[in-house]
Design a protein that fits this description.
This protein is mostly beta strands and 162 residues long. The protein is built from three helices and ten strands.
């Protein structure tokens, strides 16, 4: 069983409560608009991090932080991009470097950018957006997500209001 913290759109501001919320996570995913390398450094003190670049990211975050990531945790494939439009493009086959034709679709697709919580099924893919911890939009609270997966299945997705 793996517990994964999901955060996005920090824009250089790391809420200290995230340390408490993500304690015990096996991995953390940042959906872009990181804002400052210090955010990733703080997250890495909790657990290993997978992060993607957002439209506001201009700092050098190193070669491991790219525009898209495809990871697998305990048999669950997860695609991470920043914008919902990028997500649609990858799933439609427009970026074969991320998802090559004929490769299985991810079980979960994560994006940021909107600062609005999302947890919905689109076809066979669970689409998640953790909202934003600092500047949420559309009436959603400041938030992150906790994802639990086990043996190829999603066990739970929990919204944590900060």
């Amino acid at each position: 069983m793996k517990k994964i913290g999901i955060i996005s759109d920090t824009h250089g501001h790391f809420p200290q409560k995230v340390h408490e919320v993500f304690a015990g996570c096996d991995h953390i995913i940042h959906g872009g608009d990181i804002g400052a390398p210090s955010v990733l450094i703080d997250l890495e003190t909790i657990a290993p991090v997978t992060a993607v670049l957002g439209n506001c990211d201009h700092d050098d975050f190193g070669p491991a932080v790219t525009t898209a990531a495809l990871k697998e945790f305990d048999g669950v494939r997860i695609l991470v991009v920043h914008r919902p439009s990028d997500l649609r493009a990858v799933l439609a086959g427009a970026n074969p470097k991320v998802l090559a034709p004929g490769n299985p679709l991810p079980h979960i697709a994560i994006h940021g950018h909107t600062h609005t919580l999302k947890n919905e099924i689109a076809g066979a893919v669970l689409t998640l957006c953790p909202g934003a911890p600092n500047n949420p939009r559309n009436g959603t609270p400041p938030s992150v997500l906790l994802l639990t997966v086990n043996k190829g299945k999603v066990i739970s997705v929990e919204t944590i209001e900060l």
